[in-house]
Design a protein that fits this description.
CATH class of the largest domain: Alpha Beta
Number of helices: 10
Largest sheet: 5 strands, parallel
Radius of gyration: 37 Å
Strand content: 5-15%
Structural class: alpha/beta
Order of helices and strands: EEEHEHEHHHHHHHHEE
CATH architecture of the largest domain: 3-Layer(aba) Sandwich
Helix content: 40-55%
């Protein structure tokens, strides 16, 4: 196994007997034969970041061997691409094994760092669950508000629509409830659930509403209900257009 070593004054750590170590000072000095790069000493996370930025993704798998536990250094090293991070005063005797495992794609972390990573991941999952719950509550509140508005319209407690009364008076009480729910933004299935009807029954109501209001679709019925669509007059207008298409000024 060939190890590229980045350290201050080319200092080499212990426990590397039987390992080919080659000092490297700049990113361009890496060779294709390098299996892994070891950053050894204080402040090596910053060196790792410098090497990673300059190597354009061609950096060999990296191991950091630090003198002491510094969480800022740990975070910077891991963010910069370190696969393994060990503390010299604890597990330096595992260094050769860690270098070999890292060169083969594994990640070796000091137990304290691994435990912190687990805690961070657990906190992130818990926070995400809370965010999901809050979004669900907000969506449920919005749906409840929409249902309340629809119920108010169905009970007639909201202001009456301003459409021409000559055709609206032909609608039955249930048909007017259907129109109130449609104007509130509900679809056929929502109306059916709100009124305890089947989808087919709601569509039958809509068909009768279209006939009574002399309109051809749901959007025209809503416009007429709101007083913005003029369907009075003959079946064919003077300009030859079909009935139910003239918009009043809003």
């Amino acid at each position: 196994m060939s190890v590229a070593l980045v350290s201050r004054h080319d200092t080499q750590p212990a426990f590397l007997s039987g390992v080919t170590v080659r000092p490297v000072r700049e990113p361009h000095e890496f060779q294709p034969s390098d299996d892994v790069v070891l950053f050894y000493g204080p402040g090596m996370a910053r060196e790792l970041r410098r090497f990673a930025d300059a190597s354009d993704g061609r950096l060999p798998p990296a191991v950091v061997l630090a003198h002491r536990l510094d969480w800022d250094d740990v975070r910077l090293a891991l963010d910069s691409g370190a696969a393994s991070y060990l503390l010299e005063n604890r597990y330096a005797y595992l260094l050769a094994e860690a270098l070999l495992c890292t060169s083969r794609g594994a990640s070796i972390l000091d137990p304290a760092i691994a435990a912190e990573q687990v805690r961070v991941a657990a906190r992130a999952r818990a926070e995400e669950r809370e965010r999901v719950k809050e979004r669900a509550k907000a969506e449920e509140r919005a749906r409840a508000e929409e249902r309340a508005k629809a119920e108010e319209r169905a009970r007639g407690s909201l202001p009456e629509p301003v459409a021409a009364p000559d055709r609206l008076c032909q609608l039955s009480r249930r048909e007017r409830q259907v129109m109130d729910l449609l104007v509130a933004g509900q679809g056929v299935r929502d109306v059916a659930q709100e009124m305890s009807l089947t989808d087919k029954t709601v569509r039958n109501y809509l068909s009768r509403i279209y006939t009574k209001l002399n309109v051809r679709c749901r959007s025209e019925a809503i416009l007429y209900w709101l007083g913005h669509l003029d369907t009075k007059g003959a079946d064919v207008r003077a300009d030859g257009a079909p009935p139910g298409r003239a918009l009043r000024s809003i």
